[in-house]
Amino acid sequence: MSARRATVRRGTGETQIEITLNLDGRGTAEVKTGVGFLDHMLVALARHARFDLSVNATGDLHVDEHHTVEDVGITLGIALGQSLGDRAGIARMGHAIVPMDEALALVAVDIGGRGYCVFDGDFDTPRIGDMGTSLVPHFFESLALEARMNLHARLLAGRDDHHRAEALFKALARALHQATRLDPTLGGDVPSTKDVIAV
Known about the structure:
Layout: E1 5-11, E2 15-22, E3 29-32, H1 36-49, E4 52-59, H2 66-84, E5 93-100, E6 103-110, E7 116-120, E8 127-128, E9 131-132, H3 135-147, E10 150-157, H4 161-180
Parallel strand pairs: 3-4, 7-10
Antiparallel strand pairs: 1-2, 2-4, 5-6, 6-10, 8-9
Helix pairs in contact: 1-4, 2-3
């Protein structure tokens, strides 16, 4: 089996990002984006997906954190897609329901070659630490479109916005872990009636 990993570098006039992703890791993460809450969420994502993840990002934080969060989502999505190759042999679909104290989140994914995101959840405050809460769904959408996967995220309960966001990221992690695992019953086949997943 070839290594399921990728390194992606993305540079624009707003951000410079390098991400290395290993799908068959141990959940280790080295993350530095300049946005503390995003760092916290990406470390949780790596840990609970059992991905090894390295993220180095610099962005125009003197403007705000929007471009950095968005472009990290884009770059991580590209890395996820590249590390999956032709997506042969993977379970392809995954879902998780994760509690975080009073919060409860559901995430379901289908890494089937088509990017789509549905995010159903609201936050009560405009910011969690140094990150706008509007950027949580925006990150999910950017990730889903670039990874070419369907992603449905739903907040089922919660009062504290930190808990709500963390439950969502952890549910995303567990769903991705499930969907990216190699299914021995497939024998290396592509998990699609089309016998190919568009990449």
